[in-house]
Specification:
This protein is α/β, with parallel strands linked by helices and 263 residues long. It has a five-stranded parallel beta sheet with strand order 1-2-3-7-8. A three-stranded antiparallel beta sheet has the order 4-6-5, with no helix packed on it. The chain contains eight helices and eight strands.
Amino acid sequence: PRELRAAWVATVYNLDWPSRATLTTAQQQAEAVAILDQASALGLNAIVLQVRPSCDALYSSMLEPWSAYLTGASGKAPSPAYDPLAFWVEEAHSRGLLLHAWFNPYRAALPGTAAGLASNHISKRRPDLVRTIGSYLWLDPTSEDVKQYTLDVIGDVVRRYDIDGVHIDDYFYPYRSYLPAGTDFPDDENFTAYKAGGGTLSRADWRRDHVNQLVQRLYGRIKSEKRSVLFGISPFGIWRPGNPAGIVGLDAYNELYADSRLW
């Protein structure tokens, strides 16, 4: 009875839902119902719904703008008005399905989207927290204000919606393939300040420590809001090459600064 049989529903790039950013409210709801009906028919018991692809919201938020994947324009509300996450939660629960809200904690804009972001997007309100990574915008994980902002965004959803879980995928620091050749994540200013204050960690350990802090604090924030809400992470599949013996591939510990074994 405790087995989790879930399907991911990706909203980024309109991969799964909604299938297009030009759908009407009724069409969006019909697509959601079809996905939920199929999940129920397959014997699944949970849906992992992406509600924050890149510091945007597929739900009613006072903190972040409506997602362009929902309405075609950043900051534009659905019309006729409805709250997609509330709809998904109600329809999932009516079928005996759990609804886990899936967040991307650091990604702020994907290629080709930065120019059209709403005025209340974090990159416009607090550009000091955002770094340009090739064609992406990324929140700086070493910033205390970034940690607090992320905690507030996710805590707001846990408090206001009857979700069953919070989920994070593998996007912590950006993959190196996102970075222009020969460059590194631009956190020199914060690292210099850390060292000047007597910090002794290497830059890699310092970065991992900040990600670990967010994971630990996020768990505490979720449980303080609603103890019954689960918290899960689906990191990149390889913690470190050679673990176990024979495993080769990307080193998430050193590239994404994601210490999933510690978590």
